[in-house]
Write a structure and sequence with these properties.
Elements lengths: L35 H14 L7 H8 L3 H13 L3 E3 L6 E3 L8 H22 L2 E8 L2 E8 L14 E2 L5 H7 L4 H11 L12 H14 L2 E4 L6 E7 L7 E8 L8 H20 L1
Antiparallel strand pairs: 1-2, 3-4, 3-8, 4-5, 6-7, 7-8
Length: 277
């Protein structure tokens, strides 16, 4: 399975796991009329926003300088309003659906249209198909139609991917102004996941020139060794989004790229027409 790694962005202070923790307010000039409860909520949300793979209750409490019992009450209240989500398997906390991208209704419509189209493409090709939307500095998966093969590459709906090492990230970033791309890379960082990962800004911008020229983003064992993924942007939406196909490299040889890109473009054009109708 594809392991989607979560980013650490806008770091101010980090604990021994590399998680950004909130600075205490005592040494800093605060607002004229501070509201302690609001400050604490903001501290908690900052910690979750800057986590790499979700944060434990203990880490949130330590980072926000709060007792565990108080931290749990804040997190539970935020979870009820969908500002926080808790992974049922690990118990880790992360930002919830209330922090979805702007144009939420448009994203929901695109998701509704894309799901059957990507499932049909998955059935035709036998490999995992994905819809991703740019969410701040990361691509969030809103549709994942998993391959029926036992060995497959598949993120989970809601997982976030780095833009510098994913086909979806490259496809959507190629549609953005260079200044915005630089800001995204600065916020998210460019960690190395394999020997093929691009980890510097200028080579990445050069790669985006190729994406614009050829019309597709390519992850060639850059996010996960022995994996290959190709993605194209969906144009005319008013927000950055794209679709992709991912598979083990031995089932997705480079010579199939043109064939798969052609099918992705066909689906992307159909989705664009549906969204504009």
């Amino acid at each position: 399975m594809l392991s989607t790694r979560w980013p650490v962005a806008n770091a101010a202070e980090r604990n021994d796991r590399g998680l950004t923790v909130a600075k205490t307010k005592s040494a800093e000039a605060g607002p004229a009329y501070p509201l302690r409860a609001v400050d604490r909520v903001c501290d908690i949300l900052d910690i979750l926003a800057n986590s790499s793979e979700g944060v434990s209750l203990t880490e949130v409490a330590d980072g926000a300088a709060l007792p565990k019992s108080s931290t749990f009450r804040y997190l539970t209240a935020l979870e009820a309003r969908h500002y926080v989500a808790r992974d049922p398997a690990t118990g880790l906390f992360r930002l919830g659906l209330a922090f979805r991208p702007q144009n939420t209704r448009a994203v929901e419509r695109l998701t509704e249209f894309a799901r059957p189209a990507l499932e049909k493409l998955r059935d035709h090709l036998g490999e995992t198909t994905n819809l991703g939307v740019l969410d701040g500095a990361f691509v969030i998966h809103t549709v994942v139609a998993e391959s029926p093969h036992m060995m497959r590459l598949a993120a989970r709906v809601g997982d976030r991917g780095y833009v510098h090492c994913t086909a979806l990230g490259k496809a959507v970033c190629a549609t953005l102004p260079e200044e915005r791309v630089r800001s995204i890379l600065a916020a998210a960082g460019m960690p190395r996941f394999t020997d093929s990962t691009i980890v510097e800004t200028e080579p990445y911008l050069t790669e985006l020139e190729r994406v614009r020229a050829e019309g597709y983003g390519l992850d060639d064992a850059e996010n996960q060794a022995a994996g290959r993924c190709v993605g194209v942007a969906i144009e005319g939406l008013g927000f950055p989004a794209g679709i992709s196909i991912s598979a083990p490299a031995d089932r997705f040889p480079a010579e199939r790229t043109d064939e798969i890109v052609s099918q992705l473009r066909k689906v992307a054009r159909a989705l664009s027409r549906q969204m504009r109708a």
